[in-house]
Amino acid sequence: MSILPLSVFRLHCQATTTGKIHTSNQTDLTLVKTVMPNPIVQTGHPVLRAEARELTRDEIKSAEIRELIEIMREVMRAAPGVGLAAPQIGESLRIAVIEDEAGEKTKMSEEELNLRERYPVPFHVLINPILTNIGDEKVDFFEGCLSVTGFAANVARYREVNVRALNEKGEEISIDAKGWYARILQHEIDHLNGILYIDRMYSTTFSTVENKARYWDALDRAKPSPE
Ligand SMILES: [Zn+2]
Q1: Which of 160, 188, 210, 227 does the annotation list as catalytic?
Q2: 42-83: per-residue pLDDT in tens?
Q3: Does residue 51 have an active-site annotation?
Q4: Ligand 1 centroid to 81 CA: how many Å?
């Protein structure tokens, strides 16, 4: 797939800065945050159901892909989210970005963060990732998705996984992840295979965010620590 949305981003940025014509070809990333309408596509869009394609090492080093990664980082932070896959902004490419501050922004108590084994994960990029579960243990927690706005559901995910991938420089990386980070990796890599959490959820737990807070959070908290 071409990198069409990037030119759309540029056009939109130019159109919305009245009276100003951008002379540079560079997208003004601050505009993505301040002016752009939310560019994240929602469930029902076919790009979310396609198998995204791999990138070559030459493509990874291209200006277009570097720019795409910067846009993905800004869109993820603006959402805000802890991960974003390229198909979520209309690019059917095997790229995901991840960053989890796991701090005050989550509005979770220390106890809730610990229950989820949720610790800070610095920003990083995964290209052409291959995921393998470490052991068979799964843990159940509610999760949401920026492409299924307003809803959440309980989803069983492997507690520990390994991911081999390329980073934004085209270097091979291998990650052993546990807990919430392992969940984020599984969720984002599912996106690259056209899978959404709603395909894996316990369907009777599917809730609006409001009803999750009202009816499910107390149960979620009371649950014994997954072992
Ligand atoms: Zn998602």
Answers
A1: 188
A2: 999 999 999 999 999 999 999 999 999 999 999 999 999 999
A3: no
A4: 9
pTM: 0.84
Cα–ligand 1 centroid distance for 188 (angstroms)? 6
HEC sequence for the chain: CCCHHHHHHHHHHHHHCCCCCCCCCCCCHHHHHHCCCCCCCCCCCHHHHCCCECCCHHHHCCHHHHHHHHHHHHHHHHCCCCEEEHHHHCCCECEEEEEECCCHHHCCCHHHHHHCCCCCEEEEEEEEEEEEECCCCEEEEEECCCCCCCEEEEEEEECEEEEEEECCCCCEEEEEEEHHHHHHHHHHHHHHCCCCHHHCECHHHCEEHHHHHHHHHHHHHHCCCCC
Which whole number is the average pLDDT over 204-223? 86
Q: What is the pLDDT of residues 127-143, one digit of tens each?
A: 999 999 999 999 999 99
Average pLDDT over residues 3-24: 41
Interval between CA 181 and ligand 1 midpoint (Å): 14
| Interval between CA 155 and ligand 1 midpoint (Å) | 12
- Indicate if the pLDDT at residue 21 is higher than 50: no
